[in-house]
């Protein structure tokens, strides 16, 4: 009994230390401008105010960046699912020549970090006229090897007899994918959608490179630009950080089961 | 049946075609082109008119080797790898062991709390940590002052800036590794540890002789992933220190970004990218060899 309390208290302490920066971020975002520049640092706002959020959305037009982020992440998720789910299924369940060799090549390509090709990709998109556009920002999400991998892993557990029975009934391959396979895949599709949405929302380096026009900025790019100009305005920056990170944090908390299970399927079994 | 085979083959290519094309055009081709680009003098003039493009052989590499900032960036990245990898692996393992403890109540709650930083937006939490590490008003220095230490000029001194960023990176990423470790720890039979305990083995002895050997392949996996992540630090220095002070936090990727997209030396930037890839590959292969010799895999 004693041991149970010690371990649980220790875990509670570690958890508190871990989420303290996030709690403090929220708390400071409600402080009046300049209030947080004190020693010792105040933990709670004296008079909670929405001034920083008003400034963020009023003066700095954060609503536009929020909408940009929502648009880019939603499109990235939709496109990634359209491209990777059928491919993952085909690599697991359809027999065609060159399948295994192609898949082995894909697995080998996972070793190459995406940043290696960033400069040529920029030139390629410039030639295609996609620099400084959402299309350019979305392109990397079409080429999601990890997603194919994840879906394939999951599809391997679908019994072949189920597919064969449908084939004997005369169903085409496309119909089998839509009517029989997709319903079974729902959990992994939710997981993959969550992965892509969160990663594209949080992504920084590629949108920074490809989006030059400030009106196209996603939240992280806009926040980074703002934070370079307003180094001293802690309260405003914390409000910006809250607006940027709260949507994905809430999404994760709501769907954490899918996220954590998928993480294990992708990293350990793979 | 024959028609079915044929239908499957066609459907196979139809379903994989779009993804494979995208991967080829937007991932494999650019990665390969990086090597080709690194042998050219592609710069702002070539960007305006490709007629100005020349093949320069290994000149970009020669110039990089003579550039002190490139060496500074490489040294910094190697420091991040050398200090950051053990720091993060140990942190994650301890967190996993704590959450895996059989005396722990409300396990799912702690698991989610410890994982939460991983899903937050990197730029946003980097901004938060820049403030937490503020020399005068930061919470970190306040806590240090309570025990009579500090104040440390975390992001303003060339010696403290790298550990400061690692502190943030550790906080941000340990949850991910913790989940992987947790899955491995759950496969270690409790009886094994129990037997060692009855034999009088202390906590550290059990960790060393029972737990670690059982999860060795996972330790290797997590280390390989962490090394790659340490080589790819970019946003952290970009937001928190802008590579400073005195270039103490310029990483290879940060250097590549500036070379390519600030100075528009794309040829030279591609050479940096290729060298970065070689670095990651070399360290990963070295880890695999060490693991093989140690019998982990």
From TrEMBL, chain B:
The keyword Transport applies. InterPro entries: ABC_transporter_permease, MetI-like, MetI-like_sf. Residues 74-287 form the ABC transmembrane type-1 domain. GO terms for cellular component: plasma membrane. Belongs to the binding-protein-dependent transport system permease family. PANTHER family: ABC TRANSPORTER PERMEASE PROTEIN, INNER MEMBRANE ABC TRANSPORTER PERMEASE PROTEIN YCJO. This is Multiple sugar transport system permease protein. It comes from Sphingopyxis panaciterrulae.
